[in-house]
Amino acid sequence: MRIYREKDYDAMSRRAANLISAEVIRRPDCVLGLATGSTPIGTYKQLTAWNQKGDLSFREVRTVNLDEYKGLAGTHDQSYRYFMQTNLFDHIDIIQENTNVPDGLAADPEAECARYDKLVESLGYADLQLLGLGRNGHIGFNEPCDRFVKETHVVDLTESTIEANARFFASADDVPKQALTMGIGCIMAARRVLLIASGADKADALYNAVCGPITPQCPASILQLHSDVVIVGDEAALSKLADAGVEICG
Ligand code: GLP
After folding, report:
1. Among 147, 131, 148, 156, which Cα is nearest to 206's?
2. What angle do CA 159, 163, 168 make, to 5 degrees?
3. Which atom of ligand 1 lies nearest, measured to the CA of 133?
4. Burial class (CB within 10 angstroms; exposed 0-12, middle 13-18, buried 19+) of 246
5. Which of 163, 172, 200, 202 has the CB geometry, 3.0–4.6 Å to 236, for a possible disulfide?
């Protein structure tokens, strides 16, 4: 693992956007695995700015998103499809048909999960998979549980995730209780993983992911077994790792 420390959220976002743009420049038709949540918003803003300036093109890029709330249409303003449209896809030159997010409204969610796994496999898996980090160590919507689930699956969201995401909804009652999420298999099959984290409330999860035991109780800890993981965090998110003397660049 390589860990980069940036002084704040903006610097973290810029560094992450730099790493993503390097991938796109190196391989213009790359497959990008993308994430939602508040953490990647700045990264997407930076990528959008470079694209609009003409420095970076997404014309041939294909994307696969990690997850979607079960029961939300892509037009719902809290769906992850809507998030991706409004934070990135609507503002860049990507071909919309080349963007993929699980369908939260699929009549048969299990079949949708199987379709999604096949799709990601048929694309050859992500060249670079961007990940945020849940406060409980979740990645995508792989919540702490008693085993790592390899396949894309329907998951019951934990109370802590529902609470954490309630800020985006009118109330916690409005947060969907289930989601469709890429499993650990597709995430680990990505050639490179880029995990970004910002803020003191991620410090424990990040510490457990990097230094703790590899356990499905902290899903991000599986990344210790991946051969190419880059973590970009701000000082607050990396504070516990720094205190523990973990090697950090920058
Ligand atoms: C959601 C998403 C995750 C994301 C996490 C953290 O639950 N499914 O992919 O990493 O939230 O979100 P935030 O970046 O807002 O802290």
Report:
1. 131
2. 140
3. 10
4. middle
5. 200
Instruction: Tell whether the model's pLDDT for residue 172 goes beyond 90.
Output: no
Mean pLDDT across 223-244: 97
In ligand 1, the atom with minimum distance to the C-alpha of 36 is 9
What torsion do the CA atoms of 203, 205, 208, 209 make, to the nearest 10 degrees? -110
Determine if the pTM surpasses 0.90: yes
Report d(CA 73, CA 106) in Å as an integer: 9
The active-site residue out of 6, 23, 51, 67 is 67
Per-residue pLDDT tens over the stretch 197-225: 999 999 999 999 999 999 999 999 999 99
Q: Compute the distance from residue 158 Cα to the ligand 1 centre, in Å.
A: 13
Average pLDDT (157-175) is: 90
Catalytic residue, candidates 51, 65, 100, 136: 136
133 Cα: distance to centroid of ligand 1 (angstroms): 6
Q: Provide the pLDDT confidence category of residue 54 given band limits of 50, 70 and 90.
A: very high
Quick one: tokens of 54? Answer: 């003409």
Q: Using the 8-state DSSP alphabet, how is residue 131 labeled?
A: E
Q: What is the DSSP letter of 128?
A: E
Q: How far is residue 68's CA from residue 182's CA, in Å, rounded to a whole number?
A: 9
